[in-house]
Specification:
heterodimer, A: mainly alpha, Methane Monooxygenase Hydroxylase, Chain G, domain 1, 6 helices, elongated, B: alpha/beta, Rossmann fold, PhoU_dom (chain A), phosphate transport (chain A)
Chain lengths: ~240, ~260
């Protein structure tokens, strides 16, 4: 809907709140990549930056919620405008959560740099993080362009992230069984992988919000779930 | 444990009270209503919304033949009440209007006492044989109009001496005194303050238990608050008619969306 509101300040309010979301999205994307990078390069300084940066993401989410509450109270939005405000609040919450996971990755990186690296793991985690970051970027593009097809595409790609997580889960299990001295590092790495897998779920939820925003309906089909680690117990 | 569901607002499909098919209205050469088909359900509040001049009031006035009073007005198509054509020459418009009551934008009490305002309709329709019966009808109507407690000690005072909100509720009491089956309301709150508006809205919600209510309103929020079904009119066409929740969260027609979100349509 490209038509402008008769009351121009209404458009400005709606644009402002969406600009906040995009700003948040940019910060979160950077946090994901930098968290993975700090792990791979054993860069304690970059990890510290990610940990500190989470505060501004949280602050932005709070502003999104305040602006959304104000808009609801003062403008009583309906139809597409209402869905915009509702989705902005949910996407804000998803982004904030992804930011928390990135922060947690950076925290664990701080511990992992003190230990012997587990071979190949950091690279695999970075690839997984890059996949999620690319999904997030597309989900946010789908949001700005109101593109439900791109959103649906992102939604289906979460499958790949789940599979990467499954593979890493097995790998860490093998490392731990081979040598119990790997357990501490592998536990941290596993939590990191799990964090990224959860990020993917939040990106999926953002995509679903985009579909709701544009079509007025949540996607009904179940998307494929590939995280089977809670069902299948590999290696035993 | 029992779930605590939200207050039920869905329009469960009910019996159709008024049905319009291929309704057209002309004022001289002006084509005011174009081929409108609509089913108005019993015990449901139906809201008509749309920009000024879209025909919503004109259509509302067709439902109790108020347009008969306008010489140049011509109505085509069929409108039925409980399956009977209300434009049938055998139908007496006065009897029809007793069944299909109306409340107008500006409170318009008769220059009579509060009591006589309400008693007028029942008297001319011979609904009461004794004064006691009439008293009962007046009290019941005023109670239903949520006005009884405020006026019971001064029923002989002139109706015009009440406040605007009270006058409007008096008009509603007057409209329900003849035990109508349908109540048409043309912008009933536009001259009222927010408190009186809330009282009238609460009243509309109560009336829904017994009547089919059709309300024309310029306040989209009011339509959203009081109605179960909403019809959007634009340039004489019925653009969209559906469940109120759906119209206000996910309208199907872009013209509806433009109008309710305050965009230039």
């Amino acid at each position: 809907m490209s038509d402008r509101h008769i009351v121009k300040s209404y458009d400005r309010d709606l644009e402002a709140i969406q600009a906040l979301i995009m700003k948040m999205g940019g910060l979160v994307e950077a946090a994901i990549l930098e968290a993975a990078q700090s792990l791979e390069n054993r860069d304690e300084e970059l990890a510290e930056k990610v940990r500190k940066g989470d505060k501004s993401i949280d602050a932005l989410e709070e502003r999104v919620n305040e602006e959304a509450a104000r808009l609801l109270a003062l403008r009583q939005p309906s139809a597409g405008d209402l869905r915009t405000v509702l989705t902005v609040m949910k996407i804000g919450a998803n982004l904030e959560r992804i930011g928390d996971y990135a922060k947690n990755m950076a925290k664990r990186t701080g511990v992992l740099v003190q230990m012997t690296p587990i071979e190949g793991s950091a690279g695999a985690i970075r690839r997984m993080a890059m996949a999620v970051e690319a999904m997030l970027k597309d989900a946010l593009d789908a949001y700005i362009q109101r593109d439900p097809e791109l959103a649906q595409d992102v939604r289906l790609r979460d499958h790949e992230v789940d599979q990467m997580y499954n593979a890493l889960f097995r790998e860490f299990l093998t490392f731990m069984m081979e040598d119990p001295r790997n357990i501490t590092a592998c536990m941290h790495l596993h939590f990191i992988a799990k964090n990224i897998e959860r990020m993917g779920d939040h990106v999926t939820s953002i995509s679903e919000q985009v579909i709701y925003l544009v079509t007025g309906e949540m996607p009904e089909d179940d998307r494929p779930k590939a995280d089977r680690t809670a069902v299948d117990v590999p290696g035993f | 444990m029992y779930d605590n569901p939200l207050m039920k607002r869905d329009a469960v499909t009910k019996e159709v009270k008024i049905s319009a098919r291929g309704c057209q209205v002309f004022y001289g050469d002006t084509h005011a209503i174009k081929d409108v088909d609509v089913d108005i359900e019993d015990k449901t509040v139906t809201a008509f919304i749309g920009p000024s001049g879209c025909g919503k009031s004109t259509f509302l006035r067709c439902l109790n033949r108020m347009n008969d009073t306008i010489d140049i007005c011509r109505v085509e198509g069929t409108i039925t009440l409980d399956g009977e054509d209300i434009y049938d020459p055998k139908v007496d418009p006065v009897q029809l209007r007793a069944k299909v009551g109306m409340v107008f934008q500006k409170p318009n009490p008769f220059p009579k006492s509060i009591y006589d305002n309400v008693a007028y309709g029942p008297k001319i329709h011979g609904m009461a044989r004794t004064r006691a019966e009439l008293d009962e009808i007046v009290e019941r109507a005023l109670r239903r109009g949520a006005l009884w407690d405020e006026v019971k000690d001064r029923l002989d005072a002139p109706g015009t001496g009440l406040s605007g909100g009270q006058q409007q509720r008096l008009c509603i009491a007057r409209a329900v005194a003849t035990e109508p089956e349908v109540l048409l309301m043309d912008e009933p709150c536009s001259a009222l303050d927010p408190i009186a508006t809330a009282q009238v809205e609460e009243l509309i919600d109560e009336l829904r238990e017994q009547y089919s209510v059709v309300i024309v309103t310029h306040s989209m929020q009011q339509a959203a608050r009081v109605s179960q079904k909403t019809a959007f009119f634009h340039l004489g066409n019925l653009v969209e008619f559906g469940e109120t929740g759906q119209i206000f969260t996910n309208p199907h027609d872009p013209r509806t969306e433009s109008y309710i979100t305050g965009r230039i349509g």
